[in-house]
Sequence to fold (328 residues):
Amino acid sequence: MAEDPKRNAEALIPKFQFERVLNQDEAGRRITLHGHVDSEPALLVLERAPFPDAPEYLSALPASLRSLTNLGNNDIYFWFLGSGGPVLEHDDKDKFADFKMTLICPCTDKHIKKHRKQGYRFVTETPEIYRDHIRPFMQANREAGRLNWVYNIIEGRKEVEDVIYRTPLGRDGDEGFLMLPNLHWDRKTIEALHLLGIVERRDLWSLRDLKMKHVPWLKHMKAKMIDATIKTYPQIEEDQLKLFCHYQPTYYHFHIHIVHVMLEATSTQSVGKAIGMDSIIEQLEGMVGDDETGMDAMALSYIVGEESDLWTDIFEPLKTSRKASPPQ
Fold:
């Protein structure tokens, strides 16, 4: 009987004898192993395959996880590690977890719009659009109670054990802040490190509220955040960190992202989303005017999803209006 080349090829993988890890991407989805197959040196590159979209698989998945560990919860948000493979360490059931999960319950239509597949648009927010449309939009979002989970963290009601640094609540007034891991980080892979620095003060909704008078405070906070990070994770050096703010941010309470430079530059770090702290400070220092001159005086361009309220309620109507009233 003729040999089956396909079957022979498939028989090689079980023979792979692992020796060492050569490389792993910062997101933890791809790893390169060095070892041997039948005494011959070999490399094995493993990647996480895309999730099947078959209903029969997805409907059974949540109940079929072999282990589940809650990382924390705050308001309507819950975070877990889980394993779809064998549990090898019964005393440490999340040690080899291969799923990181976020549960939002109860979710709203806004959550659904944010997370489903959608098209994107590149828009320019002028100072006038910010003043007349975006600022009222931000205020409405804040008044709808969508910052309760942030206030829970600031006031020490939730995620207390996750805070890696904070100034004592209320002690430092406008200069008070805290730091904790971003919910998307697995808290193990150093090259994927992602922390959040959240200010105590509530008068700063986004980088649009930053003014020339805030420059010394921003420099002080940046230095404190870097120092706290490298003290907590001594394997990291200062020049392996980058700090940035999002615009538009996910929520309207000023916060700073602290990430390892090796963290994969996904859409959250793309042009039109992430603005470096150094760039913000330099922009403020270069402005002409008094101390109240700030980031609300400049145009900012960024990407919005077609399902987002920013597009459907603000930029799409503005675009339609401009088309209906062409320049004379």
Observations:
- The chain has a mean pLDDT of 85.
- Residues 5-47 form one domain.
